[in-house]
Predict the structure of DYW domain-containing protein.
Amino acid sequence: MPASPWPTPRSVRQASQLHALLITSGKISHPPSAGHLLNSLASCVSTPRHLGYALSLFDRLPQQSTFLFDTALRACLRASAAADHPVLLFRRMRRGGVRADAFTFHFLFRCCAALPFPGARGRAGLCRMLHAACHRTMLPSAATLVANPLIHMYAVLGLTDDARRVFDEVPVKDAVVWATVIGGLAKTGMLDEARGLLEQAPERNVISWTSLIAGYSRARRAAEAVDCFNRMLSDGVAPDEVAVIGVLSACSQLKDLDLGRSLHFLIGEKRIRMSDNLVVALIDMYAKCGDIACAQGIFDAVGRGQKPQPWNAIIDGYCKLGHVDVARSLFDQMDAPDVITFNSMITGYIHSGRLSDAILLFMQMRRHNLRADNFTVVSLLTACASLGALPQGRALHASIEQRLVEEDVYLVTALVDMYMKCGRVDEATFVFHRMRERDVHTWSAMIAGLAFNGMGMVALEYFYQMKRDDFQPNSVTYIAVLTACSHSCLLDEGRLHFNEMRSLHRIHPQIEHYGCMIDLLARSGLLDEAMDLVQTMPMQPNAVIWGSILSACRIHKKIDLARYAAEHLLKLEPDEDAVYVQLYNIYIDSRQWVDASRIRMLMEERGVKKTAGYSSITVAGQVHKFVVNDQSHPWTFEIIAMMEEIAQRLKSVGYSPITSKITVDVDEEEKEQALLAHSEKMAIAFGLISLAPNLPIHVMKNLRVCEDCHTAIKLISKLWNREIIVRDRSRFHHFRDATCSCNDFW
């Protein structure tokens, strides 16, 4: 294009001023002047609004040449336009008989790589169509000019076979083409192929090495990333900032502090620019390698700026090391914490067991006009599920309903799981049936939740419905199904599904599946069959399996087998108090006083202490915790009065305390008083006097509910016409009208 007499605008505003000048002077129809304006404007556009102005100007030009079409395509690339703009321009070009050149396809391929296209198949078809048009139009001499953006386009879209085919067809491959194909393969996870090409490359530059190092780090192949970095140094290639960041990430994964320090020294030695990303990588490396003092030193020296990334790195480091109060102090010093900062702090609180602080911080995000990401909310719901924190879980549900977070299948699955683990089967079922989309994980969560809540037959109905809806069950689904059979004594169904998972779905049972089946057989009294399965399973039994055998031995009075199971358990978990207590109780039940005494002495010799039982209940958002014979509660007198009323009303309907389970040598009345003072009964008594009559009483217990309490709570539920939900260490018990959801099989 001939040189223009007009000045070159440096901004869209200056371009609009030149546009006005050309119009008033009558030069807008002068092709060189109009072309100069469009070319200048294309170099300035950065938003879709600017692009609209540039394309409007392009549409008004009287003559549209190859150069002007290329200029318009360049503007589309700079403005990250919608996918239809460059494609429509190319179609107009062909309809108008304007010949495309190498630059046309250069910009088209770059647009296809950079711009959003709907549908993966549509994108692939369009890219191949443009490639074919290029092949028909271009002379072989232009192949090198378009090869790099073409390979890059295919690699970005994950079409690595196409990228490799183009690379193989390029007659003269320069260093840029080699680096592009190696980087594309590395980004799509084809690291071995990328490494093979790197070995063949006539010139291995820093870009090729860096692509491979970053790919290995992303794939958690840290040792290979470090090896690549060392090979790069031995080749005499000077590392740049990106290469060092990649190997620092690998160093963090390996937790190799010595290597991290040597890299820090190398940064100074090679005078590599200390960018924000490099500062973050160094802080992250030192924190993950356990040297938080060095991480803090780097942050204090170069990280205390306005940008949030270094702050996020140091806060996340403190949170991961459990120093959440130090992290919160730094958090409060920030001018504008972002979503990542909040996520780190919330996750830190969750891992430290401070759920209330995590929820409060989540609510504070709204005041900062920040939208929580789904990962954070799923983490919070998972924490609520594990702690049985129903009020906090409901608050999160309200946030989801208010569209404060984007609803997806993972989020709603976590919501179903939370309600199930808080014992609210009705609310979990309501959420499940409202879901617009479900996947196998959702169905599995629903089946597992019903199983743990003692509703085995209902769980199996959902399993059958899942298969009718053409969802393929996976290994986790069958764990849930077998748990449902185990918790509800569904022996025939358990055998059927244990065999079916192998024969129909080719799912090989894992130790969890064997554990469920052995538990079902053992608790059903089929201990010989259970032991046959233990001895024929293809892996060594774990503590859970031997624990199931031991528990069943107490129910079915199998002393010798109990001793055998306990021996294996004590080898696996020599400090686990529950093993000693269970074996002690078995000996007491069998009146083998000498053996029982030996177990007590063994516990004393090994310093093993019995875990203190406690129960908790949440009233008006506050958690109230009780231990046996607790008299520390502010409402102690009222609780004692209610417990006396409970004792009287239980006796009036024929209840007799199961005092045979108490081994202490005291009279019968004291044994009855000891049973009455169990922590779960005290929590229920407090619930009866503090909760409205229409509300369920929800109690959490850290140990298994004893037989006497189980019998008493069934009667209490009928006498007070209340729903009582007890979550012990292994399952839920839903008490209504003198019955329990476990059907006395627990």
